[in-house]
Design goal:
Helix 1 crosses helix 3 and helix 4 packs across helix 7. Strand 8 and strand 9 form a beta hairpin. The strands form three sheets. Strands 3-5-8-9-10-11-4 form a seven-stranded mixed sheet, with helices on both faces. A two-stranded antiparallel ribbon has the order 1-2. The chain folds into two domains: 73 residues, no CATH class; 133 residues, no CATH class. By secondary structure, it is of the alpha+beta class.
Length: 256
């Protein structure tokens, strides 16, 4: 996990950014607990520094780690105790494409159930976890300078930090037409499951239930290697799959 302070134009404030483009073959329980602990400790240090820089300089990392641990008591236990649909448990135990399609038909997930599935896949079935984020920007940006951060506000205006030679209209085009894919892999040897979504899905721009946010699913049983599927995501032309799992309580939601 990488972290960076990006200061605003007057240098008085900053945004703390955490990012991870690639995680491969890890114990997901240990990975997510370590990441969250580091995030909380870093943010606590930032907050205290804003109020009292001198006091902050006297405190070592152990102090902030301890405070972060206190904040996280019970946080991950909630995920571990969240029940998930039995079909997802059966999914982790079958290598037949036909069975996988049948088990996932009509299923939904929310964010807590997703984390529970990630944890259970390792704790109960020994799957290692990988996560990848791929971003493909619109063409024509070669040699152009993007700002450090830019955001499309609800009123349609662009908020940005850092120098750029792009107009607000061009930056809006980048946001609206970039292709971003986030994928979660559960792996055991050559066998793998993958749940992935796109930012278009999150924004309600995919043709599924009037814009309902959803995951796609694919596995090694679909006749493609992990390396080839990753390359298809990297290029923005991923292998299509007809399996959709609605992701509830996140992003764009259709009216029930």
């Amino acid at each position: 996990m990488n972290t960076e302070k990006i200061y605003d134009e007057n240098g008085r404030g900053f945004i703390r950014v955490f990012s991870t483009d690639k995680v491969e073959l890890v114990n997901p329980v240990e990975y997510y607990k370590t990441c969250e602990l580091k995030k909380r400790a870093t943010i606590l240090r930032d907050l205290l520094y804003a109020k009292n820089p001198f006091l902050t300089s006297l405190l070592d990392d152990k102090f902030f780690i301890k405070k972060a641990e206190e904040m996280l008591v019970g946080f991950f236990e909630e995920f571990e105790q969240t029940p998930i649909h039995n079909n997802l448990i059966q999914l982790l135990q079958t290598t037949r494409k036909k069975d996988q399609i049948a088990l996932l038909k009509g299923l939904t997930l929310n964010t807590k159930e997703l984390m529970s599935l990630i944890f259970k896949s390792y704790n109960d079935f020994g799957f290692l976890y990988s996560k990848y984020l791929f971003e493909n920007l619109p063409s024509g940006l070669e040699g152009r300078k993007l700002p450090k951060l830019f955001h499309l506000k609800e009123d349609g205006t662009i908020e940005k930090v850092g120098e750029t030679d792009l107009t607000d209209g061009e930056l809006r085009n980048v946001i609206e037409h970039r292709k971003v894919i986030v994928s979660h892999f559960f792996e055991k040897g050559d066998f793998w499951h993958c749940f992935f979504l796109t930012y278009n899905s999150i924004g309600g721009k995919e043709n599924w239930k009037n814009g309902q946010v959803h995951f796609h699913y694919i596995s090694s049983s679909f006749g493609i290697s992990k390396a080839d599927f990753i390359e298809s995501m990297r290029s923005g032309k991923y292998k299509s799959t007809s399996i959709h799992i609605d992701l509830l309580d996140y992003g764009n939601q259709t009216e029930g």
